[in-house]
Specification:
Distance between the termini: 21 Å
Largest sheet: 3 strands, antiparallel
Helix content: 40-55%
Strand content: 5-15%
Number of helices: 9
Strand order of the largest sheet: 1-3-2
Number of domains: 2
Structural class: mainly alpha
Amino acid sequence: MVTSLQEIHEIATSKEEENTVFRSFLQQQDGDEIDSIIGRLNHTVSAQIDCTVCGNCCKSLMINVTEEEAGHLAAHLQQTRESFDETYLEKSDGGRMLMNTIPCSFLSDDKCTVYSHRFAGCREFPGLHLPQFNKRLFTIFMHYERCPIIFNVVEQLKMDLNFTE
């Protein structure tokens, strides 16, 4: 199990070409079977990696925020909703809201300061529990070098599928 972010980055860089081939390979596999394998691997790998120690996703993700989530966190922080929105959110003309900084404003010493009140996008990451892994390969591989869970699941998946470049 590789958990060092530096080591993961180095390995990921060396495997860029391999991973391009692997993505194509995965797209030709049965999606339900891959989802089943990913579910098992995610369960095993996630149990061995404490993602609250890393915080690397908080340094790079763009997080969507719903009205309900913004109101909930504003109340938790004892701020008016207007003050919260001005301080932490970017709003589009269509009403979509995103956290306005990367890394996240709520990250301190690689830890989420509002962990029990974090947004759904944060709770779902790295999303390996979600169906249709094969349809989310762009996103998966975008985070492959920054998330130890994704990295280790993908590398184990290669072994389980007897993948060779």
